[in-house]
Design brief:
Structural class of chain C: mainly alpha
Number of strands of chain A: 2
Strand order of the largest sheet of chain C: 1-2
Number of helices of chain A: 25
Chains: A mainly alpha, B mainly alpha, C mainly alpha, D mainly alpha, E mainly alpha
Largest interface: B-E, 73 and 91 residues
Number of domains of chain A: 4
Oligomer: heteropentamer
Radius of gyration of chain A: 31 Å
Largest sheet of chain A: 2 strands, antiparallel
Number of strands of chain C: 2
Number of helices of chain C: 20
Shape of chain A: globular
Distance between the termini of chain C: 34 Å
Helix content of chain C: over 70%
Chain lengths: ~625, ~100, ~475, ~475, ~180
Amino acid sequence: MQGLVEILVLPLLGAATITAFKGLMPKRLPGIWASLLVAVSFILSIFQDRRVSQLAGSHHVITGVLWNWATGFGPAIHFRLYLDPLSAVWLLIITGVGALIHIYSIGYMHDDAGEPRFFAYLNFFIFSMLLLVLAGNLVVLLIGWALVGLASYFLIGFWYDRPTAVAAAKKAFVMNTLGDVGILLGLALLYIHYHGVGYQHLFAIFTHAKPGSAFFEWTALLLYIGAMAKSAQFPLHMWLADAMEGPTPVSALIHAATMVTAGVYLMARLYPLLRLAPVTHELIGVIGAFTAIFAASIAFFQQDIKKVLAYSTLSQLGYMFLGIGVSAYTASVFHFMTHAFFKATLFLAAGSVIHGLAGEQDLGQMGGLWKKMPWTMGSFLVATLAISGIPPFSGYFSKEAILGQAFNSGHYILWAIGVFTAGMTAFYMFRLFFLTFTGKPRNEHLHEHAHEAPLVMTIPVVILGVLSLIGGAFGGWLNRWLSPAFHQYAGGSAAALESGPLFGTILTVGLAVVAFLVAYWLYVKRDTAPKAGTDKAPGVWMLKAWGMDSAWMTVVVNPLKMLGTALLTVERGILAGVVGIASGVQAWASDLAPIQTGYVRRYALSIMVGVVALLAYYLIRIGFIS
Amino acid sequence: MIPLNWIVGLGAALFAIGAVGVMVRKNPLIMFMAAEMMWNAAALVFVAYARSFHAMSGQVMAFIIIGTAAAEVGIGLAIIVSVYHHRHRLDIDEVSQLKG
Amino acid sequence: MFLVWLMAVPLAGAIATLIAPKEVSKAIAAITSLVGLVGYAGLLFISRAGIDWAWIPQWGIRFHLVSDGLSLFLLGLSAVLFVVAVFASDAHAGRAYYFWLLVLSFSVVGLFAAVDLFVFYVFWEVLLIPVFFLLTGWSGERGKKAAMKWLIMNLVGSFFMLVGVVALAVIHNQNGGGLTFEISQLSGMSMSAGVASWLFFAFLVAFAIKAPLWPLHGWMPDAYGESPAPVTAIISGVLSKAGIYGILRVMIPIFMPQFREYQTLLLIVATAGLVYGALMALRQQDMKMVTAYGSLSHMAMMALGIFSLTSVGLLGTTFYMVAHGLMVGGLFLVLGMLENRTGTRTIQDMAGLNRSAPRLAAYFLFFVLGTLGLPGLPGFAGEYMIIQGLIASHVVFAVIAGFILIVAAWYMLRVFQAVMQGPARTTAIKDLWSRQVAWLVPLAGLVILIGIWPAGITAHAVPSLYHAMHFALGKGGVH
Amino acid sequence: MTYALWPEYSVVIGVFVTMIAVMVFNRRSIQAYWVGLATIVVSGIITIADWSSKSLPVALYGHAVTVDAFSLVVNGLVLVAAAGALMIGWNDKRYGPDFPVLVLLALLGMMVLGLANNFVVLFIGIELLSLPLYILAASRGTGESGEAGLKYLLLGAFSSGILLFGLALLYGASGTLVFTHLDPAHMILPLAGAGLALTVVGLVFKLGIVPFHMWIPDVYEGSPLPVTTYMAFGTKVGAAAILMRFLFFGFSLDAGWWGPALGYLAVLTMVVGNLLALAQKDLKRLLAYSGIANAGYLLVGISAHNMFGARALLFYLLPYGLAVLAAFAVIQFVAGERDSLSLDDLTGLAYRSPWLAAFLTVAMLSLAGIPLTGGFVGKFYLIQAALFANQPGLAIGLVVGAMVGLAAYVRPLQRAFSKAAGESSEPIRWPVAGSIVLVVAVVATIGLGVYPAPVVHIVNHSAAFYWLH
Amino acid sequence: MIGFVILAIIALGGGIGVIVARQPVHSALFLIMNILALAIFYILLSAEFLAAAQVIVYAGAIMVLFLFVVTLLTAGKDDREPKENLAGQRLTAGILAVLVGGGLAVVGVLYPSRAIGLGLPHNFGNLRGMGVTLWGPDFIYLAAVALMLLTAAVGVLVLNRPRRQVKPAPRLEERES
């Protein structure tokens, strides 16, 4: 327990102090302070991970209750923290990669007026993400889950005077809320049935449950919806591309390396539940595969350097979910790790490019930058090779592990999709690389002023580049490291890394190489313009991301707005009704008033009417008139 | 022997006539007279029933009615005089400023 | 007896404002409300604070106040919000303004603490009057109409309730139990089904109007829109809770069979209100109206929690009342500051104010996030419990409620972003003054506290809740 | 030795002394007012003394009158009404020195109505009450005042005729004039039914029940203000007292055939009265319609026909009267030299005179039936009575009426609390006597709302006595 | 019985005359006729004292007063009845009166009171009988009537006292100017 709280609290402290004292801090201090705290957190995480691994017995878990969160309607829900090997991996990546990106940001944001705010947000994000992975039950997880969403909202909308950024932030938040609601419903279901939402409590029950009941399917589906929204699985993926409106380090940290993989974390965490819900489990793999190929197709013709990376992130997330779907949990975690390395490298390098080009992101304005920014180019190349699955770069190993297990478990179609997508990945990534760094500069003016990034930015990029080079070597270690976690409860038996058939590997790598060659031929030899291919049938749709945005608008958003507009009429009716009744009564009263004519004889008449009425009533009542 | 119940019928008729008088005549004096007639009708019925019960109480009541009528007429005429003193016609419908 | 002192404080303050010079009215009100808050803090440590005194013995009416788990936190909510409202008020509003505000405070304490139906009803109606005058005297011409609507709609509801109140006592008497208005004695009373249904709806309508619940919210838009911000904060934060509180305190113990009988109908109507409020909020162009309709939706959420008829749903509502009160009160105060600074409430007329007023924007966002139910802030805990209760009783409504949470995020962010973000369209405004921060910070801190520690309230509310309900709830209650 | 009738005797003596005072002193003298007030005080003291007397209830003059707790409570109420009216019109040169004399005479009528136990006394009471009020209504000498007097007189004579005929038929049906000797079981029923119908009409005419109410707005509006106050409070007390006494003594055993009709009338009255109040622009007229509506509330107490009804009615008279006193006192102050006050004249009252506005608020809220005022407790008691009688329709009618009337009572307040357009902030004079009435009425209204238990006790005691007969 | 019919016709004729006569003076005279017919009825009903009182008070005092006022108010004025201007007033009034009068008459005629068959008590209805009652147990009624007459006297004084011309309260603007 001790130690976890410190890891958690340090970044929060950073966020709080920077927010409170940003006016008093000298210019660079917030960045340094924030980076320092995250770095310390990283170091503490290492110690904690060691503690976990040294625990006796098979249960490598540190857990403890901070306080009683809510009670009164059943067994209390505690504010519980929980560290096991699975969360430990995330812990390391979050704090480690997070620290590097913090450092990088010191350089990247140095001339932005909102720099302290940026670091406060970033620290807040680290805190939330740590809370998410250190959560000991689903409620605390959901709190972390929502807070990272909030942090993401802050950071996407960091430049709040850009309407597009603001809109993107809102979209991200609302879509993530959808996911939150899914988790909320799912965990409420679990609580109702099992009187608790703690992982250990639930998993112990799941271990003894029989799979296949509708209850488990629904619960798993609801929780998966949460993961879908957070990890941008189809059809809840649009927000991630728009999220590139935020500063590039944010894209690297949140929308590539860490936050978007929370869904993978959740699904890996819930492997005992997935065992019980085979249909949902399959669905996860199918949607993952579809997302992978779907996003890859969109990435083909993107014109914006960050958009390409964003869709490639989507595609890679699809791989991870494909891994979850075929029970390749360790492989998914492995891919998460390598992806964190190479995608962070790619984004940060892209950030350096954008930084070097004074904020330009359009591929049409780049080209021939390799001479101007060699370190960046080098790192980018390494990461590109890694993501394309070229051995011996890290991506090769992790992707291979997922595909291998997909094949082994008999999901041949999913496997085929994965293989094909790997080729597509290689194509668009190399297209990106070539368009950015090789060939002739397409904008001489920008090219003139382009420059390599300062050291504070380059060093993290290079470190991450190195990690993406060698990351594949962690596979064996990870396999051992995670096995206690996945063997603790039923359902994780197939989690360990496996290797697929040799022909599969050859096919994958071969496809990647072919794709590389095609890209080389197209964009280096023939020097095709970035826009080429976007004016004809598939290209147009690919560029427009298959029109999913407008589909959402048509199917969900606009009907809701129209319903709201229609209800405005109802509301006017209700409000007018209130006034109407009141003024109706008033008018009635005014109409009634002239009864009072002022003529005495009329009054006498009225009295006489009353006499007749009363007389008749009494005579009838006593039976005189019958 | 006088048929007492017929006297009650006569009283009812006089009562109705008085009521009509109040309702249809426009001269306040005549309305007032008609009202007096209603009182008289009641007094007649009282006396008739007193005769039937051989009890003086009805007659006492009739006496009180007559005495009260005297007082009421005094006040009523005073009011009518004070209201119509300066008016051209004795028309009750002219006195209808208060309404609504 | 302590509760009586707690009531006497604002009353004394109110009288003091009438006597003292005009200039110190605000100071008196501030001191009074602070004393009330301190007294409330004391209440947390006093176990026997209630009073039970034969008020009108001939009718079995007892002046019976208690501070149990149901009322304790609502008393706290009102104590806090009144302090905040007084501090946020215009110093030149005049003595009558503070007089009415303190009278309101007085009656709210009485309302929340009453467990005798007659006493409850008395304060229920008394509190209409100060609000009526606050709306009449300190807002524009439309405010007068709003005041009229407020008074008449609420009284229409509560007049029927009055008949219900008396009828309950009379029936209890006819059953041979003697004339009493004590809720605990009226609970579980045998009545003919027809009569019980009529009484049930008489009470329900009264409470629904005050809350307000759709479709009885006709008074709400004008009242929320036209009243000065502190008054709006009080109405939306405290008084609207009175409606829900009434359902919990009065109706649940007495009309449980009717709740069961009409549960589906009630759930449908409340869900309609939930959706309706959210969609209305989505289409409003006036930032106060967005919040007002959002609040309408949230009130429906509280009603759903009750109508789920599960212990967790009721508990969720109990908790959510306090949470929502604090947050929506804060939000309306922030909106009031914005309105004062910009002179408009239309969101199209504003944009990009974050640049000139970052602190204001931060508090705005904080309360926006709170009201949209961000996990970690108290709205979430309430909504969680309510939805859990709904799942346990009728899962369809839980799904709809969940869906509305998404829409809530949408409309709340829409107003925040439109006002605070985007390219600046309005001239710069002044940021918060330090005096304003002085009360916003504790308010926000309190919100965070109960957000991360809902057990602080739920653990205390539970015994009273079960005590109040007397007989166990049906399915879904985990206990 | 019983002083049973001495409250009434002292008033008679007071009448003569006052007249002598008028004659002896100068015509514009204030002495008559003092003597009148002293009379009321003495009568009140004797009433209180009688209250604690052991010898009650007592029937006197061959069951013509019965002095019991009920009549003493009525005495108390009408004495308050008379004192209030007298002090509101205190030494106003517009009404002259005869004003106290006539007030005392009408007071005597009201007191007689409280203790009547036979038809003769009933009739005497009605006339003794009405005759001075005819005069007072017309006494202002203006067109409106004369019109009010004339209308009151003609319709009063008309209704008295109906009343008398009804009494005659009842006499024929039962053979007795004494209420307590009426025995529904041995009456000739059709005669009794017809007689009862006419008698009830004659009595509710004075109370102002729809459709016999039409004289009320005109007479209230046209009469001088203190007289209107007196009518609104005193006449209602007297009429309600005699109606209850007559019906409950004479017909208490069998409510089945006379109760429902009154119930319908009550509902009709409450709704129509409040509805018409909504349309009014003149404050006196508004209060007149409010008086009609309140008559409907009183009738609820009668048609409920149970012990609670009697008690509730007796109770309700007090807060109603106090609110009327307070409201009319405010009108008197604000109107100053004028005879009436429109709603628009109230605009800005809260800024001209905050206290007057506050007092008006209390009065109006009491009439509207808002808690912590006496009016609420009264309505509450009435609803209780209706429900105890198993007549939810009455209770619902009551609240529907109250709802409709609500806006009527609130509109003046809203005027009073909004800023006036002009600068007409001429200070308002506070006559001493009127101020006493106002303050006492307001304090008592609130006191009655906050702690009604003592009054409830008195009322219950009085109605309990009443039911022992 | 024949006497009764004749008297009834006279009384009814007088009554109808009151309400149909065009001039108030005629009405008053018709009313006197009616009153005198009733006085005879009183005698027939063994109410001698009342008959005398009826003649003296009603026919004598009251009607003279009426006649006096009629002449006072109609002197030199147009004393004819103005045209009926209230729509349906006469018809409705007639119907209502027929309903009420007819109903009451039917009830009264069909249901006679329980008459006592024995002979009349001594002094029934004559001066002595009334005197004993009114100055005995029922003196209080007499006193009340006296008070009413006193009220009437005061009323006449009040209503016709010389009035100081009370001007309507001056409006604010007038006062300022």
